[in-house]
């Protein structure tokens, strides 16, 4: 029998890989199903609420009105024009949000590691983080604008303020929730604090990191929209202002629903990525000495 006629064997999938795939698929199905059911229930309640007596149909729009805005022509333009307009505005908002999220996440991880490695750093800078958390963002945003002007730096800083605190606190807790047995084992074999951080602390902190990221992703969009609402004429945040001034409440509601829907989608994607990562590391990653 020649080589070309040999039967082909299917690639072997290890048990750990199969379990990881099943875990990810199950977590994804539960997350997506829960969100879909919740969205249908909320949409039904929303539609009922706008039909109650005392509501002004000119201002109060329901989910059917939002769907019509995207799918039907009206006196304000065609459905294609509506979709193109909001898609362009959404691109601006996502760019601003991504910038704030990236800067905030990077700073949070760096500061959390510094807090874990050097307690003195935490004593010095945690009050600043607490200040950023306690001062309302609506009050802080004009100060940032006055200092840095209108542009990407201001957008990044406003998004960073929203993202920084939840990621910083949760990740710091995660990095410090290391099993003492794991630390002792690494120390006995001559490992340094950096080795403990890389081999044990970071894997242990993964669930905390992803939990805070699920909070930070919608928060970054909120921060971007606040920046646009206050200081620019582009993006979904600015669209809310212009639509209100023009009494175009269909666009106002559509922009709000679009921002909410995108936040939910990004939250779901983060959850799926979390499931995939934890399926490899395990929900108790780093807590066992042999991890």
Describe this structure in words.
- The chain is mostly helical.
- The chain has a single domain, classed as MetI-like fold.
- The protein is 79% helix and 0% strand.
- The protein contains ten helices and no strands.
- Helix 2 packs across helix 10 (249-281), helix 3 (79-117) runs antiparallel to helix 4 (119-134) and helix 5 (137-148) crosses helix 6 (152-176).
- The longest helix has 39 residues, at 79-117.
- It is globular.
- Residues 286-291 have low confidence and may be disordered.
- Its main location: membrane.
- The chain crosses the membrane at residues 29-49, 97-118, 130-148, 154-173, 252-273.
- Belongs to the binding-protein-dependent transport system permease family.
- Keywords: Cell membrane, Membrane, Transmembrane, Transmembrane helix, Transport.
- Residues 90-270 form the ABC transmembrane type-1 domain.
At a glance:
The two termini are 46 Å apart. Helix 2 (63-71) crosses helix 3 (79-117), helix 3 (79-117) runs antiparallel to helix 8 (193-231) and helix 8 (193-231) runs antiparallel to helix 10. The protein is built from ten helices and no strands.
């Amino acid at each position: 029998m020649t080589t070309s006629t040999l039967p082909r064997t299917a690639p072997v999938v290890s048990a750990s890989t199969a379990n990881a795939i099943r875990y990810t698929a199950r977590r994804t199905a539960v997350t997506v199903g829960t969100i879909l059911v919740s969205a249908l229930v909320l949409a039904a309640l929303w539609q009922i609420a706008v039909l109650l007596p005392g509501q002004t149909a000119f201002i109060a729009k329901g989910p059917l009105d939002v769907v019509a805005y995207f799918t039907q022509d009206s006196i304000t333009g065609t459905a294609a024009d509506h979709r193109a307009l909001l898609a362009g505005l959404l691109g601006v908002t996502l760019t601003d949000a991504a910038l704030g999220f990236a800067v905030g996440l990077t700073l949070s991880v760096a500061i959390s590691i510094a807090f874990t490695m050097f307690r003195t750093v935490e004593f010095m800078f945690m009050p600043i983080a607490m200040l950023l958390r306690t001062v309302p963002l609506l009050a802080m945003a004009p100060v940032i604008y006055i200092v840095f002007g209108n542009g990407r730096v201001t957008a990044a800083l406003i998004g960073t303020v929203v993202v920084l605190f939840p990621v910083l606190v949760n990740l710091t807790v995660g990095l410090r929730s290391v099993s003492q047995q794991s630390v002792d084992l690494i120390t006995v074999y001559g490992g340094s604090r950096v080795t403990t951080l890389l081999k044990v602390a970071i894997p242990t902190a993964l669930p905390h990191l992803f939990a805070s990221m699920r909070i930070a992703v919608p928060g970054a969009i909120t921060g971007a929209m606040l920046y646009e609402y206050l200081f620019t004429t582009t993006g979904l945040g600015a669209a809310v202002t212009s639509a209100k001034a023009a009494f175009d409440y269909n666009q106002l509601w559509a922009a709000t629903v679009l921002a909410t829907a995108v936040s939910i989608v990004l939250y779901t994607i983060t959850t799926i990525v979390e499931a995939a990562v934890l399926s490899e590391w395990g929900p108790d990653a780093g807590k066992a000495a042999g991890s």
